[in-house]
Amino acid sequence: MKKIYLYAISFLAVANVCFGANRYVDGSAGNDNNNGSSTGSAWLTIGHAMATASPGDTVLCKGGIYREHIKLYSGGGTSGNQITIKNYDSNEVILDGSEPVSGWSVDTGQIYKVTPGATVDAVVVDYVALKPAVSQSNSNAGYTDTTTRAGVTISEGQFYQDNSTGILYVWFPGGGAPSSHNIGIIRTTPDTSSQYDGVYLWDAGYFTFQNITIRYYGARGFEASGASSHNIFDNVKILFNRHTGVVSGPYSQLTNCEIAWNFLWNWPRGKFNGGTQGGGWGAGTSIGANSLVTGCKIYKNGGEGLLTYMNPGGTTFTGNTIYDNWSMNLYIDTAPNVIAEKNFIYCSNPNTNDALPSAFSSDGTIYKGLLPIGISTADEYYGGEHTNYAHDITIRNNIVANCRRGYNHYAQYSGSGMINIHILNNTIITPDFSVPGTVTIGDGDNFLGINLANYWMVGTGNIIKNNIVVARNARNYALYTQTANTYTGESPSDTFAPYDMSNNLWYNSASSTPIHWGANYDTKHDKTLAQWQALPGASHGIGDLSADPLFVSGVSIFKPSYYYPMLASPTIKAGITLQGFLSDFENKARPVAWTLGALEPGTPVPIINSMRMN
């Protein structure tokens, strides 16, 4: 049976507990009436331990599955005295929000059935999210299907819940009985209900979580609200939750975490909001101000992968691998003074089988989600005015591969735009195709390396230097901006004034015009490097190149080692020395003469034939 704990324990209530003590939890043999001081007197639940432990304590949990919803409204650690939650044996500690079911029986063939007692939103088997089966009359897999079981064909790797009886039917991948599988049944819940969070902290903070898995919750895996802050996650897995994986709160730290397949509300892709780009979805990771995310693997989430928004900023994202999230991989929205550096960000080629058939439309909307943006800054409008615009942001030493846009800026607030955004020593390549089949995204949505803010947005103090940006299809561009209003023709007198751009490589392996810089989407504004350098306005393009960067290649573009420059690469020593950082993507020291892009040459530099990008 799942336990829900609501705690409001003040520090005074536990003042008699010594600081720095070890406390123990045993989910099978413990008792919350014990004192938790030894394995023989262990508490039963992690929630009770979090509410009862004193600042500086370490809560040691025996490996196993803990079916708890933890809600804590006060307490926690203090500055310099975190409360640490971790395992004490070699087994995994799992906070599990799935619906516990029993009584499985065979329906027919390999299909099993059970009555879970709740409306099911998702089923995960052996860490694979199953797809819902529907009747032939309903192509909208994942939406309400009122047809009874008799009208539905269930295939391997699918589930179906009969709305009239509540019975759940599952054909497990690979076949076999339910007892041979790890099963997570996730209920449909109200969007805003913290009742279904894994861990919900309000005004409680200074917790450290180590070697913990949080999975299968009907809402968020972890949510810090109110004044909750200073939460640390070390080697934590947050997986397959229906809403956002983790809402960290400010002054948080995530190190070596795995955050994947959260916001299952959007599985199959396009289930949430019918696949539109209207926003409103949750994220894999939503990070508060003045935080650090490093060494994490963030992927396959049904909303933005790594997000920070509507806060005073000051957060750093460094050394993460981020890929295949919905719409955006790394999103910095209405948050200033952010650093994104040394991240490897990529997008696999889109698999249309991951999306609802109904989510495909003539404008190619679904492809915008299946092939997300790599890094985006933004000032989205959330109602009213505020001061936390996305300004003074540094994006450096990142590798961004095969995404719909490598870097993008999006603004809605009046007076917002690219302000003091520094894009330095990044390596960016676009996909080598346009939208598959007959679907088109639209002239303004070609795959782009760097997409700068459009003409109507305020811009100043932006520095774009030492980047390698490669487009790999004739419809795609390395550099793109729209400089005038499509309808009125209004345009600033100097379209280059907001930018200090030099020593970049702009290359299209399938076209001689890697740059689009003009009043509208018309291809007449496509430019060769020389044509773009000759446009009137502030100085731009000094030291720029348009040539094959001669990557070492030899391996997948989804490996950072692909992007080492060969000895003959024109990018070597083509950069200028920049302030604020001295190393490359792999922490190698930059020499006196810098190489363009994220990587200095390897040591030794392999000498092999060029593998051209096309």
Please explain how this structure is put together.
With 614 residues, the chain is mainly β. The strands form five sheets. It has a 14-stranded mixed β-sheet with strand order 1-5-16-19-22-25-28-31-34-37-40-43-46-47. It has a 13-stranded parallel β-sheet with strand order 2-3-6-17-20-23-26-29-32-35-38-41-44, covered by helices on one side. Strands 4-7-18-21-24-27-30-33-36-39-42-45 form a twelve-stranded parallel β-sheet, with no helix packed on it. A hairpin with a 2-residue loop joins strand 8 (105-108) and strand 9. The longest helix has 7 residues, at 46-52. The radius of gyration is 26 Å and the shape is globular.
- SS field, number of helical segments: 3
* Rg from alpha-carbon coordinates: 26 Å
Main pleated sheet: 14 strands, mixed
Terminus-to-terminus distance: 57 Å
Question: What is the general shape?
Answer: globular
Strand order of the main beta sheet, please? 1-5-16-19-22-25-28-31-34-37-40-43-46-47
Brief sketch in words of this structure:
With 614 residues, this protein is mostly beta strands. It contains 3 helices and 47 strands.
What would the keywords be for this entry?
disordered C terminus, 614 residues, 13-stranded parallel β-sheet, 3 helices, globular, mainly beta, 14-stranded mixed β-sheet
What is the topological layout?
Blueprint: E1 3-7, E2 22-25, H1 46-52, E3 58-61, E4 64-66, E5 68-72, E6 83-87, E7 93-96, E8 105-108, E9 111-114, E10 120-125, E11 128-129, E12 131-132, E13 158-161, E14 168-171, E15 183-187, E16 199-202, E17 207-210, E18 212-215, E19 222-225, E20 232-234, E21 237-239, E22 246-247, E23 253-255, E24 258-260, E25 285-286, E26 292-294, E27 297-299, E28 306-309, E29 316-318, E30 321-323, E31 328-333, E32 339-341, E33 344-346, H2 365-370, E34 373-379, E35 391-396, E36 399-401, E37 405-411, E38 419-424, E39 427-429, E40 448-451, E41 462-465, E42 468-471, E43 477-482, E44 499-502, E45 505-508, E46 515-518, E47 526-527, H3 529-533
Parallel strand pairs: 1-5, 2-3, 3-6, 4-7, 5-16, 6-17, 7-18, 12-13, 16-19, 17-20, 18-21, 19-22, 20-23, 21-24, 22-25, 23-26, 24-27, 25-28, 26-29, 27-30, 28-31, 29-32, 30-33, 31-34, 32-35, 33-36, 34-37, 35-38, 36-39, 37-40, 38-41, 39-42, 40-43, 41-44, 42-45, 43-46
Antiparallel strand pairs: 8-9, 9-14, 10-11, 10-15, 13-14, 46-47
